[in-house]
């Protein structure tokens, strides 16, 4: 935060650029370090409550390869819908545990971008592995798991770059992979895998820009998000639905 000192004059002009920057700095310092994580949890809980009151709403939000070609909003909306209370509780617990650590490190904007990108990538993986002539083309998928696994992938990159011990983290990921691949788990391993890969790729791209100035890092962020989003659109449109 800018603190006026010797030789510095406090800008009293409410409409000046300096005053605006100071107000933005004060706001950001009081903004909770895990604010996006809390908003995402609140959104998932809110959607769950709404769907419990009116169950038919869920049918407009779930992801299904057959429906999502004409209703692409489902690629993202399905990440806020959960199958039951325990599904919601588990995802929100993992989101809080990892999100509250990762978000302060990489920043609110990058964190939110990775979360949303991973949610879409998880459903894109479902499309790419589904059989248009089989039941998988008409199977509904819900939950924030793909997005959460994207955060796990991002945190793996952060830990690797910072030189942290990855043993416990890799064991956690391996256990989740085994559970996801269990035939009777009812879990979409495709969503987990797609989200995880998206998180790794996005965070790796951002980590390459850490030596640049803040202005140039913002440009890299925008370009990286745009490139990854465009790649997902092309892959889904050309490969998944062709």
From TrEMBL:
<keyword id="KW-0472">Membrane</keyword>
<feature type="transmembrane region" description="Helical">
    <location>
        <begin position="136"/>
        <end position="159"/>
    </location>
</feature>
<keyword id="KW-0378">Hydrolase</keyword>
<feature type="transmembrane region" description="Helical">
    <location>
        <begin position="31"/>
        <end position="53"/>
    </location>
</feature>
<dbReference type="InterPro" id="IPR050925">
    <property type="entry name" value="Rhomboid_protease_S54"/>
</dbReference>
<keyword id="KW-0812">Transmembrane</keyword>
<comment type="similarity">
    <text>Belongs to the peptidase S54 family.</text>
</comment>
<keyword id="KW-1133">Transmembrane helix</keyword>
<feature type="transmembrane region" description="Helical">
    <location>
        <begin position="73"/>
        <end position="99"/>
    </location>
</feature>
<feature type="domain" description="Peptidase S54 rhomboid">
    <location>
        <begin position="70"/>
        <end position="208"/>
    </location>
</feature>
<dbReference type="InterPro" id="IPR022764">
    <property type="entry name" value="Peptidase_S54_rhomboid_dom"/>
</dbReference>
<feature type="region of interest" description="Disordered">
    <location>
        <begin position="1"/>
        <end position="20"/>
    </location>
</feature>
<protein>
    <recommendedName>
        <fullName>Peptidase S54 rhomboid domain-containing protein</fullName>
    </recommendedName>
</protein>
<dbReference type="GO" id="GO:0016020">
    <property type="term" value="C:membrane"/>
</dbReference>
<dbReference type="GO" id="GO:0004252">
    <property type="term" value="F:serine-type endopeptidase activity"/>
</dbReference>
<feature type="transmembrane region" description="Helical">
    <location>
        <begin position="219"/>
        <end position="241"/>
    </location>
</feature>
<feature type="transmembrane region" description="Helical">
    <location>
        <begin position="111"/>
        <end position="130"/>
    </location>
</feature>
<feature type="transmembrane region" description="Helical">
    <location>
        <begin position="166"/>
        <end position="183"/>
    </location>
</feature>
<dbReference type="InterPro" id="IPR035952">
    <property type="entry name" value="Rhomboid-like_sf"/>
</dbReference>
<feature type="transmembrane region" description="Helical">
    <location>
        <begin position="189"/>
        <end position="207"/>
    </location>
</feature>
<dbReference type="Pfam" id="PF01694">
    <property type="entry name" value="Rhomboid"/>
</dbReference>
